């Protein structure tokens, strides 16, 4: 989505931002429909990276990704508002779509998900299994968003953003609270970075309780809109993206997430597709955890020595496990050092 610089500046200034209190309220709302995922020690991976490594296994979350937290919180707020809506709609590469479908079904709303033409088949099947109508359109996030907004207007549906929403961000921020409770001596948290909802939420929660903990965003090299925007001090829109991490493909940061990340996040690093596939294989072989490319970027960064310091206690957020079997096979077939 191309956003004129001045319009972006105005939106960033005016947009409401989630607080730690919003995260606390989100924890209450999502209880029962989400699970508290485990924090797993990964000794061998940590030895390879030169750190004490722990994994926040959101790949074991219901629907297979962290996205359920934000979706449930957002739909719970909608349901309590008293507003009458015909249903909900979103644009998603997959994980947010299936999470919204799950949450909408739990609260009795019909759901529509606009997904890219090359969406991972398991993610499409899961969204449909949770009751959503899936519409394929385009390959870029801009194309999906345009189509979803048009359908929302035509059908009178409530558009639920995948990341640029206070309640979505607050829901994702509950992961930050859990990390601090389960590993109070953590030094750094490495978080996958796509649109920015997960990173903005975790940073909001962590910095409110433990400002000294470093929060690091990890992007694919072929989709580094946040890194470029951070360097420029304004939102930069990419012409195209190219990465195996389909959940992290975005042309630009969110208008709401960008300023939060600028202020609260200590560092943004990138990893290559080869490093991502290597991390997926290491996770599968050494920890027995199946993680999709987007969920493996934090481990990829740690193994490459980016965003971490020797001897630190590091938590990598495994954001999802909804991997295309063909991609997993490709990762496992690659040689490991």
CATH architecture of the largest domain: 3-Layer(aba) Sandwich
Overall helicity: 40-55%
Mean pLDDT: 93
Report the sheet with the most strands, covering strand number, pairing sense and barrel closure: 6 strands, mixed
Morphology call: globular
In what range is the share of β-strand residues?
5-15%
Given the helix and strand composition, which structural class is it? alpha/beta
Radius of gyration: 18 Å
Distance between the termini: 40 Å
How many beta-strand segments?
10
* Unreliable segments of 5+ consecutive residues: 1-14
Annotated CATH topology of the largest domain? Rossmann fold
Number of domains: 2
Strand order, biggest sheet? 1-2-10-7-8-9
Helices and strands in order:
Elements (H helix, E strand, L loop, with lengths): L4 H10 L5 H11 L8 E3 L1 H7 L2 E6 L9 H14 L7 E4 L3 H13 L3 E5 L5 H9 L3 E4 L4 H15 L2 E2 L6 H17 L5 E5 L4 H13 L4 E7 L4 H8 L24 H8 L2 E5 L1 H15 L9 H7 L9 E6 L6 H9 L4
Parallel strand pairs: 2-10, 3-4, 3-6, 4-5, 7-8, 7-10, 8-9
Antiparallel strand pairs: 1-2
Kindly describe this structure.
The protein is of the alpha/beta class and 337 residues long. The chain folds into two domains: 5-65 and 166-333, Rossmann fold (3-Layer(aba) Sandwich), CATH 3.40.50.1100; 67-159, 3-Layer(aba) Sandwich (Rossmann fold). The protein has helices spanning 5-14, 20-30, 43-49, 67-80, 95-107, 121-129, 141-155, 166-182, 197-209, 225-232, 257-264, 273-287, 297-303, 325-333; strands spanning 39-41, 52-57, 88-91, 111-115, 133-136, 158-159, 188-192, 214-220, 267-271, 313-318. It has a six-stranded mixed beta sheet, sandwiched between helices. A four-stranded parallel beta sheet has the order 5-4-3-6, sandwiched between helices. The radius of gyration is 18 Å and the shape is globular. Residues 1-14 have low confidence and may be disordered.
């Amino acid at each position: 989505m191309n956003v004129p610089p001045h319009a972006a500046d105005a939106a960033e200034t005016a947009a409401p931002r989630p607080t730690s209190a919003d995260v606390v309220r989100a924890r209450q709302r999502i209880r029962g429909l989400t699970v508290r995922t485990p924090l797993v020690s990964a000794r061998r991976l940590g030895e390879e990276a030169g750190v004490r490594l722990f994994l926040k296994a959101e790949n074991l979350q219901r629907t297979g990704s962290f996205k359920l937290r934000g979706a449930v919180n957002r739909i719970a707020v909608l349901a309590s508002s008293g507003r009458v809506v015909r249903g909900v709609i979103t644009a998603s590469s997959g994980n947010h779509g299936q999470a919204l479908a799950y949450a909408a079904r739990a609260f009795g709303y019909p759901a529509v998900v606009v997904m890219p033409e090359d969406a991972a088949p398991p993610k499409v099947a899961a969204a449909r299994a949770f009751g959503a109508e899936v519409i394929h359109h385009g390959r870029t996030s801009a194309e999906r968003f345009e189509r979803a907004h048009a359908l929302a207007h035509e059908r009178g549906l409530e558009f639920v953003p995948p990341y640029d929403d206070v309640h979505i961000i607050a829901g994702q921020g509950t992961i930050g609270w859990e990390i601090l409770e389960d590993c109070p001596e953590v030094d750094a948290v490495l978080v996958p970075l796509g649109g920015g909802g997960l990173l903005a939420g975790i940073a909001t929660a962590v910095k409110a309780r433990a400002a000294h903990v470093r929060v690091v965003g990890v992007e694919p090299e072929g989709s580094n809109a946040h890194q470029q925007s951070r360097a420029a001090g304004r939102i930069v829109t990419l012409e195209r993206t190219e990465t195996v991490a389909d959940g992290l493909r975005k042309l630009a940061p969110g208008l709401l997430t960008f300023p939060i990340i600028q202020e609260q996040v200590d560092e943004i690093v990138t990893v290559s597709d080869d490093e991502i596939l290597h991390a997926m294989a290491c996770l599968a072989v050494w920890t027995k955890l199946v993680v999709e490319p987007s969920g493996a970027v934090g481990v990829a960064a740690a193994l490459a020595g980016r965003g971490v310091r020797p001897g630190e206690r590091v938590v990598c957020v495994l954001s999802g496990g909804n991997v295309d079997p063909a991609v997993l096979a490709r990762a496992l077939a690659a040689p490991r050092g």
